[in-house]
Every structure is written in structure tokens, then in C-alpha cells.
Amino acid sequence: MEELLKQLNKPHLRLADILPLIQDAETLPYVEVEQKGTSFEGRPIYLMTMGGGKTKLFMWTQMHGDEATATASVFDLISSLESFPNWYRTYTIYIMPMVNPDGAERCTRHNAQSIDINRDAIALQSPEAKLLRKTFDEIQPDIGLNLHDQCPYYQVGKTGYPSTMAFLAPTTDVEKSITPARTIAIGLVAKMVDAISTHIPNCIGRYDDTFSPRSFGDSFASLGASTILVESGAAPNDPNRQIARKMNLIAIHQTIEHYPSLALQEEMTSEIDAYFAIPENKAKTVSSLLINNLHFIGETSYQASISIKQKTRWCNQFYIDAVGDLSTMAGLSSFDASALTFDAGKVHQLSSYTKITDDSLRDWLQQGVIQFQGENALLDNQSSYTLFYNQPISANENALVLNAPAYFLMRKGDSVVAAVLNGQLIMLD
User: Fold this and answer.
1) Mapping DSSP to helix (H, G, I), strand (E, B) and coil, where does residue 100 land?
2) 271 with 372, same domain?
3) Which residue, 255, 336, 358, 392, shows the most beta carbons closer than 10 Å to its own?
4) What angle do CA 389, 393, 399 make, to 5 degrees?
């Protein structure tokens, strides 16, 4: 299984990516695999069962088809279970490793009916939601782990740190009551955060606990399971979220280790205090790249910061998200441009075959060229970068355009010393 696990280090996972691991897991003596049902388009949905203990742990992933990080983590768990002596006597573990294979195939949040399965816990209009609820009712789990991905642009409170992991012990009513089952979930989150903090200090948030009865986490919590929402987020230089993948595994290990003692613990004041001390997630306050205090020179001169974001996690397209005073934002990567001046760059019209390498691209950029125009056959891009080729040319040489592709130059005096190519910062001096 170890070699197969390495193949899950990729931006997105579809059913075909995990079928070899399901088949391999089925050969293990402690794993049973059952096709539990099918998706709207007829793709199989599996339930994997391990152990024979009294305590029932149920976890499900990729309810949103484009949220695949924890799908890799649950297979990491299966591979690591033997590190817990006698786990099978305490637990029966149930894993549904891809609730929404149709959405996974399309790389979309919704299923093939365009239904958000995690807003279908009451109406049950999707076959996937019906199957998930039916499975829960059959298992009657003590613990539910609702494993998701979150937007890469969440921040931990106002700290400037990205929310690489976020947790929530869902409430069961609008009053946000702390029921006995929720108390155990809160205690488990406190244990998870304590363990994970040594790996990603300052990068753990607490998800919004507004009651959402249409969502499965809140619904299952209302049915008595100690339910935990786990949200995998972004980290610097980690496009495939392998850091969050590892943190998920640590969190699940903490559940296995600590649930028995927490279930018997009468007083959990310290755990509750620790849970509510976790900073809240703040949405859309982080960028992929934040260029700070760049000078713009023209008839009207000004200084502004630039937020650059990715169109979607799965595509290699970055755009200008915001320009101006961005002092409330942070970046997965940031750059102080206070000594530099904006340059929109020139367009080079190709008239003959041109090969672009990393070295020659640096030469073009230093000459002030950032865009190429011409017949597709004339440009041979062998560089490590995505070139700005045959795209609409901005009419404004002294300003950036919102939602436009993230390409521009930065000068110090007469010299081009830095460039942004498709959201990637390149230093030239």
C-alpha cells in the first residue's frame, strides 16, 4: 500500500485514483469492503469496515467532490492502524472514502444533480445524501468525523497566518447548546489541536458554529454522535495540501487514542476552555501572493498593495484579486515592493520560431517584455513558467486590472528587478 499512497500526492483525486487502494486494502485481514450504493451517475460508493470493538467511529470524505485532502488521509490511516495495539478490540471503524464520486470526476463541489450534498441532510434529494444517512442509521456511530477542505484564503483570526487546519464541534440547535456528545467532541478537538500545534503552530482555526440543520455534521450531532468537522486548508509551498493530509492523520490518531478516556471523564472545563480559545477562521483574508506597497507612476502617482489569487485550486491560473490598502490581508507568500515601481511590460510580436528557456526568459523580462503575440507554432515554451501569450492587452500602462491574469514587472530605477508571471514571483537582480 505504501507505493500506492505516494500516488495520492496530487492536486485532485477521482474515483480511479483510489480504486487501487480500496482493492489493496481489501486484501488486509482486518478490512472488509462493501459497495454500499451508487452515485446519481452510477459510480460506486464504498464502505470500508475495520475491527470489531464496541465503540463505533464513522468517517466520510469528499462529500464535496473538489475536497480530496482527507480522502488520502483515510488510506494513510488504514496503513497505520497496526501501530495501535488492540485497536480492533475497542473500535469498529467505518470509512466512506468518497461520498461524491460524480463531483470528484468533474472536480466540482456539487454532485451530478448540481446539489450540494452537505445541504441535503433534510430533503435527501440526492442518492448520495440518502446513502450517507442510511449508513449512519445502520451504524449508529459514537463518533463522526466529517472530513472536508476549506478555501485556501482563510486566516487564523487576525494573525496573518493561514488556516491550514480548522475544527468544529457542531452544535445541535440555534442556542449552541453543549450537549454531552458535543462535550466529548470538544474534548477531542482540544486533543487534536494540542498534538497538531507542534507541527503547524499558529495555523489552526475554529470553524464557524452557526447552527446549520441542512448540513450532515449538525444533523448527525443532533442524532447523538460526537461529531467533528475537520477542514483541510492551505500552507505555504504546499499546493497538494500534503501538510494538511498529515495533520488529518494525526487528528484521527488522537480520536482513537483519547475517546475512551474522554467518554468516561466527568469534568471537561479545561478542554472546553481550550476549544473556545482557538482563534476563529476569517474568510478571504489571505492571498496566494501579496505584493506590498508597489509604486505606480503616471499622471496620478500612488502606492498600493496587490492581492493575487488562484482561480481554483485545481487550475494553474492566477489573477489580480485586489489593489489598494490591503493591510488587513496576509499572503501565503508576500513581497515588500516599497522600493520598486510598477511596469506593465511590453508586448513582443513574434515573426519567427522562438524557443523560451528559463535563462532566455530572464533576458526577455529584463528587456521589459512580458507578453508575446503571434502564431502558436512560433513559440516553443521550454521554461518552468506559464507565459503570457496571445492574451488581451491592457490599455492602461499605469494600473492593474481586477480579475486580469497576474503578469507584471517591477523596476528599480531603469532596471527590471522582479516579475510576476501567472502569480509566481521571479527575482531578476
Assistant:
1) coil
2) no
3) 255
4) 120
Identify the domain boundary among 282, 313, 335: 282
Same domain, 148 and 275: yes
Pairing of strands 407-412, 281-282: unpaired
pLDDT band at 284 (very low <50, low <70, confident <90, very high): confident
| Domain extent at residue 234 | 2-282
Q: How far apart are CA 355 and CA 360, in angstroms?
A: 8
For residue 398, name the pLDDT band (cuts at 50, 70, 90).
confident
Q: Domain containing 372 — which CATH number?
A: 2.30.40.10
Of 228, 251, 282, which one is at a domain's C-terminal end? 282
Closest C-alpha to 21, from 39, 7, 35: 7
CA distance 133 to 409: 53
Sequence-ordered list of residues with C-beta below 8 angstroms from that of 111, at least 6 positions apart, any chain = 39, 40, 65, 100, 102, 103, 117, 126, 128
Which cell numbers hold the place of 223?
442524532
Do residues 16 and 7 touch, judged by C-beta distance below 8 A? no
Question: Burial, 130: exposed, middle or buried (Cβ in 10 Å; 0-12, 13-18, 19+)?
Answer: middle
Tell me the pLDDT tens digit for each residue of 1-53: 889 999 999 999 999 999 999 999 999 999 999 999 999 999 999 999 999 99
